[in-house]
Amino acid sequence: MSGYPPRRNMAIRFAPILIAILMGLMIAARGCQEGPFGRLQIVGMDAQQEAALGLRSFQQVLAESRVVERGPIPEVVAKVGRRLAVASQSPEFLSAIGLTIQKFEWDFRVVASNEVNAFCLPGGKVVVYTGIIPVAETEGGLATVLGHEIGHALAHHSAERMAQQQLVQLGQSAVVGSMQDMDPRQMQQVMAVLGVGSQVGILLPFSRKHESEADHIGILLMAAAGYDPREASQFWERMSSATQGKGAPPSFMSTHPTNERRITDLQKWLPEAEAIYEKSQKQNGNRLLPGLRADIEQNTESPFFPSRTGR
């Protein structure tokens, strides 16, 4: 009889973990699908839910930002974006990344900001900050930026990150439930270690994988749209120069691969992209972007690119 209480306590202790495992298996079974390049991915929502979430976020961003509605900059972003969107349905591109045709309501917007950034929300809502235009420099460089962001949407990376976070939270909750009889200070220490471990060991590596996968999709997409894929590594060389000395975190603590790693990977994927590019309708990717032409010709300070003065 003396052995019963310990077994009972052990069952109570491990019950939250068993429940979390069952719930995790349910999430995995419900959200498992084939992702880019034949890999299996687990997503936390379907395409319709993902698109609805993306649209709400997009509307909020536009409402809170200085949107550039007209002019040469939004025109060239929309032009390059549309070409990439059309190319995203080409059979050769889809065969290369291992996905089928997906229907998105594409929308390409420009926001006046010095931030060197762009992003694509689920469902095909793309925002480009004017701060990245000088780094993009050419239409081919812009195609690199947009192709990468479109790659995130095509790969449903947002829905996959949501599933990963759900699974991590389940695991952490299970551990808390199994430590109810532990000293509160010890419990706090364990949870702190778990938090760092899940971030460094699970979420950040997956984030870097998503970024690398979007780079891979992006270089194939820009090639399918007729932009020379060699422009991709040239863009990241400019990005490396623009961000030099900015104090980037160590690679294992970063959400993105290093610029050097990206350039190496893009060079590795170049033969695959060039084969697609050779069959495409070629575009003039070397054409300078509009605001940069004005800066160079007039040697004046552009309202969107003050850093370009005197180039």
Give a brief outline of the structure:
The chain is mainly alpha-helical and 311 residues long. The protein contains 11 helices and 5 strands. The protein is globular.
The average pLDDT is: 79
Q: What would you report as the Rg, rounded to the nearest angstrom?
A: 23 Å
Main sheet specs:
3 strands, mixed
How many distinct beta strands? 5
Estimate percent helicity: 55-70%
Number of continuous helical runs: 11
Point out poorly predicted stretches. Answer: 189-204, 249-253, 293-311
Q: How far apart lie the N and C ends?
A: 86 Å
Taken together, the total number of domains comes to: 1
- Lateral arrangement of strands in the main beta sheet: 3-5-4
The string of secondary-structure elements, in order, is HEEHHHEEEHHHHHHH
Specify the structural class: mainly alpha
Rough outline: globular
Relative strand content: 5-15%
What does this structure look like?
The protein is mostly helical. It has one domain. Helix content is 62%, strand content 6%. It has eleven helices and five strands; from the N terminus they run αββαααβββααααααα. It has helices at 4-31, 47-63, 72-87, 91-97, 133-136, 139-154, 157-177, 184-224, 230-242, 259-278, 290-298; strands spanning 32-34, 40-42, 107-111, 118-121, 125-129. The strands form two sheets. Strands 3-5-4 form a three-stranded mixed beta sheet. The chain has a two-stranded antiparallel ribbon with strand order 1-2. A hairpin with a 3-residue loop joins strand 4 (118-121) and strand 5. Helix 3 packs across helix 6 and helix 6 packs across helix 8 (184-224). The longest helix has 41 residues, at 184-224. It is globular, with a radius of gyration of 23 Å. The chain starts with a helix and ends in a 13-residue tail after the last helix. The model is unreliable at 189-204, 249-253 and 293-311 (pLDDT under 50).
